[in-house]
Specification:
By secondary structure, the chain is of the alpha+beta class. Helix content is 58%, strand content 13%. It binds flavin-adenine dinucleotide (FAD).
Length: 490
Amino acid sequence: MPCVLGTAVEEFWAASNLAFKLCPMLTQGAVEALEHFGSPAQKDRFLPKMVSGEWTGTMNLTEPQAGSDLAAIRTRAAPDGEHYRIFGQKIYITWGDHDLTPNTIHMVLARIDGAPPGVRGISMFIVPKVMVEADGSLGARNDLQCLSIEHKLGINGSPTCVMAYGQQDGAVGYLVGEANRGLEYMFVMMNAARLSVGLEGYAVADRAFQQAASWARTRVQGKPPGALVGVTGPAPIIHHPDVKRMLLTMKSQIEAMRSLALYGAHQLDLGNGHADEARRAAARACGDLLIPVIKGCSTESGIDICSLGVQVHGGMGFIEETGAAQPYRDVRITTIYEGTTAIQANDFVGRKLARDRGAALAAMLDEVKRDLSSSEASVTRDAALEAVAALEVAARSVLQSWSQAPERALAVAVPLLRLTGLVLGGWLLAKSAAIAARQLAAGSTDTEFLRGKIATAHFYATHALPGAAGLSRVVVEGAASVIDTDAALV
Ligand SMILES: Cc1cc2nc3c(=O)[nH]c(=O)nc-3n(C[C@H](O)[C@H](O)[C@H](O)COP(=O)(O)OP(=O)(O)OC[C@H]3O[C@@H](n4cnc5c(N)ncnc54)[C@H](O)[C@@H]3O)c2cc1C
């Protein structure tokens, strides 16, 4: 299925129940790992029931001493004839154990005895919870156990497990692909996984927005100032200018991030399937560039949006019955798992920008400027063009410091990442406003939806995009106050 379609559908799952959505998401990650790198026999044995959903899958990377830094993984794999015996502990394993399905297939990163230290000595293993016989039937329990389930801030429907492998004679594990290439295999699946977590940010935020908008239309409080035709007494709070501002902030940021994620997904599809090799390469470079932006920005803004959702509810937002607090708690994890925002920003600056000296970003911004310049002048378009210029200045400055003093570039990597998301979101909203205006002029009757697009883009241009100049200044001038401050003074 095209990634762009999958991304749109997955949003519904994430908005409906983020905790539950993680189960098929992780299973899909394990399926992709096997599809790409498993042997034909492994695929035959495990894939059909994982794809059908009869069995679930997990990804086991994290250990107590190895979170962002996977080079520190210690789980061992000892050769034992045709397979390996796995010994070690993994933490935070999403859907690591449960009784919804008769089997769970764990994809586990571990070091084969004698493997080189660091990232080049890590291999990937299939470790089934219940052994699968040659005829496909289930056999004995493998030597692995869920030691405990974490008590969490949110996504409480998802069991986050501490997993112990090999407490007796070692869990049977089957090597996937070649030894010592496990982390490289994980990285191949990284784009899909990071896109999938990125969309969680705006999906959960949209749930919060829908709740808040509906609350604001029915909660009556105070008489809004100014002229409200036909209203003489207290009115629904949506008519208070600040409540409307909060709702427009929520709506516009969600639409900006959704457009960016769908645009990125489309680039990944073109990168995989376009007939022309040059077009495939350009789309791949663009998709790769955008993934950390989508993951980092959509999840960070998801937290801000869900917080606004609580605010729109007033005191009732803090009371559990309204359900406004749940998205706020659930969305909080999205900036942490699948690489924290800092890890996305490091990837954006250190790999995506530095690798080609900013060529992919420059190519994309050229397209953005061409596209914006070809539409009619408006507040929305001009604000987007101004914001692009602010991003160009910031990106140049970071590229320059990366080659001289990388720590200075990394000190402002997150602000640069957020600036990039802000600006590209502004471009896509301006683009959709221009399309909406054309369709209205052509006589479309979908007027409320189309006018909503234009209004949302206009709001974003006047409330969000002016922040681009400030962020750009932080990127250009802000590194010194981080790097020159001794850690003891923090
Ligand atoms: C609910 C939940 C579900 C999870 N599911 C899974 C799962 O299914 N499988 C799995 O393997 N893991 C899973 N994880 C683990 C998750 O991916 C890690 O928590 C995450 O990668 C961060 O690692 P850490 O917790 O060790 O934090 P740390 O790495 O200790 O990071 C702490 C802080 O330091 C910063 N930091 C660390 N290194 C750098 C750096 N190089 N540059 C800048 N800043 C840095 C981070 O950004 C962060 O702010 C899950 C975690 C949770 C909480």
